[in-house]
Amino acid sequence: SWSIFEDRILYQLLVFLQPPSRHSFRLELYSGTRLPERCSNIRVVLECTCLKKMGDIPCFVHPSKNNQTAQHSPLLQTLCTGSYLDVEEIACWVQNLVQTAWEHLPQWQHWQLTVLPSSHSCRVLLSGPSDMQLCAVLVFAVEQGSP
After folding, report:
1. Under a CB-based contact definition with an 8 Å cutoff, are residues 108 and 126 in contact?
2. What is the DSSP letter of 47?
3. Is 81 inside a domain boundary?
4. What is the pLDDT along the chain (147 residues), one digit of tens a residue?
5. Is residue 57 situated within a structural domain?
6. Could you tell me the residue range of the domain that residue 68 belongs to?
């Protein structure tokens, strides 16, 4: 969605996260008596690839013959707390990615990018040569029932 407030245009974008290969997302609904800060958790499940013909790609779940320990998932190590997606880690990762990518775009010399503080989304403000400002809010979601 988008809207205009005086000299600022606000864009709100819903970004659906997809699990990388050898992973799946499982929505676990909260079943307590009180509503928590977030009503659901997204668990990252490592998929076994031992029986699938995936070449030399190691299985995260089972150790290989050459390596006696299971492989570690970069997703679990960077964007999760335990085995659950961490929205604060995702927001921080995307904010850093946007900031780094911005410097490689031709517009960066004429527009200033400011990453606004947010722990549950990625919020950026673009200020250009005119008095107009663009604010983009990326909100992260996972589709229920997605593979």
Report:
1. no
2. P
3. yes
4. 889 988 889 999 999 999 988 888 988 876 655 544 554 588 888 887 776 665 666 676 666 665 544 457 888 888 988 889 999 999 999 999 999 998 888 877 788 899 998 888 999 999 988 888 999 999 998 876 644
5. yes
6. 2-142
Counting the structural domains of the chain, the total is 1
d(CA 85, CA 139): 14
Burial label, 85 (beta-carbon count in 10 A; 0-12, 13-18, 19+): buried
Query: What is this structure's pTM?
Result: 0.76
Q: Does residue 37 lie within any of the structural domains?
A: yes
Beta carbons of 55 and 66 less than 8 angstroms apart: no
Residue burial 69-84, b: 16+ Cβ < 10 Å; e: rest: eebebebbeebbeeeb
Antiparallel, parallel or unpaired: β 80-81 and 40-46:
unpaired
CB 27 within 8 A of CB 142: yes
Contact 100, 94 (CB under 8 A): no
Query: Token pair of 125, please?
Result: 């403000």
| Angstrom distance (rounded) from CA 50 to CA 34 | 41
